[in-house]
Structures are given as structure tokens and as C-alpha cells.
Amino acid sequence: VGSSSVLTCSPKSSITMVTWKINPKVGGSCTLGYRADQNKTDRTNCSDSINWKLRPDWDPTLEIRQVEIAHEGDYTCEVVATDGNFHKTHHLTVLAPPRLTLYCDGHGVPVCEAAAGKPPAQISWVLESTSTPKEEAHDNGTVTVLSKFTALSTNRTNTTCIVSHPAGNQSKSIAC
């Protein structure tokens, strides 16, 4: 989320036409097209964040700026060239790093929250804990994971929560 993604479409010699067909998991489809004989580009229902990386007559690569979860889906490039027709499909999966919050609840128990991650984060504790994380799914495909520290011994002063996620790991410590 937030970075740029570049999807290649192998340039062939003597390109006649290039079409990107974009089918996100959520929302409507969009297309980007280029016709060499008219040196003309066309776009239908595409947001401004989806565009040619360079000029399509040089390179038919697609760029998605400021990637959002809504961009997840299938991106198919169709090239018509003098030596044949070519198709390439990219399946774009978007990772959203969770926001880590660590606090003490009303009973002095450490609570670790990994909010709005995609996929769901894994939560563990440095000191051994019997905690069972709870997950809450959101409409946009992200998941919030909540874990309360359950001490096996009462002799604790500082507790560390570790959040593991494909977009990066995080940790925080607290004394309740």
C-alpha cells in the first residue's frame, strides 16, 4: 500500500496495438489502449493512478502509483504485433502493514493490537503467554488482530509484543 507497482508487458517488434485490461477484485474494470497506426492512446474508466509508465509506442509497461487495496486484481496485457498476438496476465496482491498499538487495559493487562493489516498479522509475546488472538475483518479486506497478555507467572515488569507481517515486523514494550 502506498508505493508504486510496475507491470511489464514484453515489447514485441512492430507493435500494432496494445491493450491493458484491468479487472480489480472490487469495483469496475478499466482499459488502457494504444494504436500504432493512429499513434493514439485511449483510457476507459481508469483512475489517474493507473497509466503507461513511459510512452506506449516505446514501452507498453503499466505503472500504478500510490497502490491501494482497491487496485488488487488481474491485469492483462494484450499485444498485437506483426509476428502474432501475445497475452500476459499479472495477478496483483496488495499488502497493508498493520498499525501497532500496545496499551494497558483497565485491569493492568497488556493488550497488543495490530490494526488493519492485510493479510492478518501474527502476534506473539517475548515472555511466554497463553493468549488467544482475536481477529476482526473489515470491509476493505484488512484484518485487526487483538491479543491480551496472559502471564504464566505474576513476576513481570516489562512485556514486549511482537507483530509479524509480510510487509515488515514490529515490536513494542510496556510495563503495566
UniProtKB/TrEMBL annotation:
<dbReference type="InterPro" id="IPR036179">
    <property type="entry name" value="Ig-like_dom_sf"/>
</dbReference>
<dbReference type="GO" id="GO:0009897">
    <property type="term" value="C:external side of plasma membrane"/>
</dbReference>
<feature type="domain" description="Ig-like">
    <location>
        <begin position="100"/>
        <end position="175"/>
    </location>
</feature>
<dbReference type="InterPro" id="IPR013162">
    <property type="entry name" value="CD80_C2-set"/>
</dbReference>
<protein>
    <submittedName>
        <fullName>MOR1A protein</fullName>
    </submittedName>
</protein>
<dbReference type="GO" id="GO:0038023">
    <property type="term" value="F:signaling receptor activity"/>
</dbReference>
<keyword id="KW-0675">Receptor</keyword>
<dbReference type="Pfam" id="PF08205">
    <property type="entry name" value="C2-set_2"/>
</dbReference>
<keyword id="KW-0472">Membrane</keyword>
<keyword id="KW-1133">Transmembrane helix</keyword>
<dbReference type="InterPro" id="IPR040012">
    <property type="entry name" value="CD200R"/>
</dbReference>
<dbReference type="Pfam" id="PF07686">
    <property type="entry name" value="V-set"/>
</dbReference>
<keyword id="KW-0325">Glycoprotein</keyword>
<comment type="similarity">
    <text>Belongs to the CD200R family.</text>
</comment>
<dbReference type="InterPro" id="IPR013783">
    <property type="entry name" value="Ig-like_fold"/>
</dbReference>
<keyword id="KW-1015">Disulfide bond</keyword>
<feature type="domain" description="Ig-like">
    <location>
        <begin position="1"/>
        <end position="93"/>
    </location>
</feature>
<keyword id="KW-0812">Transmembrane</keyword>
<dbReference type="InterPro" id="IPR007110">
    <property type="entry name" value="Ig-like_dom"/>
</dbReference>
<dbReference type="GO" id="GO:0150077">
    <property type="term" value="P:regulation of neuroinflammatory response"/>
</dbReference>
<dbReference type="InterPro" id="IPR013106">
    <property type="entry name" value="Ig_V-set"/>
</dbReference>
<dbReference type="InterPro" id="IPR003599">
    <property type="entry name" value="Ig_sub"/>
</dbReference>
